[in-house]
Amino acid sequence: MILGRVIGTVWSTRKDEYLVGAKFLIVRQLDLDYKPKENFVVAVDSVGAGVGEVVLVAQGSSARQTTFTRNKPIDAVIMAIVDKLDISVKEQLAGMVEE
Amino acid sequence: MYLGRVIGTIWATRKYEAVNGYKMQFVQPVNADLKASGDPFVALDTVGAGPGEIVYYVTSCEAVIPLDVDMAPVDASIVGIVDSLYSVS
Question: Which of B32, B62, B69, B82 has its CA 20 to 30 Å from the CA of residue B47?
């Protein structure tokens, strides 16, 4: 899953009939320090995420593995709202030294 | 499957109920020389890996297979912890 922040909402009335009732949120990907990256994705919300919240987005065919998105043309779904992120191995990351 | 290093953990109380009970870990993909190669991402941990450990993970909808539910929005799961690695690259 990718880490992202919900930055907006998409409303659309003319869309695939399967998508009726879906809530589309715009999620911008974040790096390990919560700094926004360039890419973003429009994801269907399945956990009640709001704008500004840090979330996890599952992409690809796994996004269809929920009761709502099953058999629908959806390839990104918000599946968790992040409470806390703990990066414990950051200092090794720079050199990737084998301990 | 790919190799990765567990670099951190995510806590999330509000999540899709089928993923309850699984730890969510931040994984840095690594190559055969254990050097970082690619962007870090979040994977569900089905084997109890600790931070710093080298693991291998499965992606796409196969990531749901190790879970004891048949449907869950998960696109990456850690399925093994590496004891030792021999490569002749």
Answer: B32
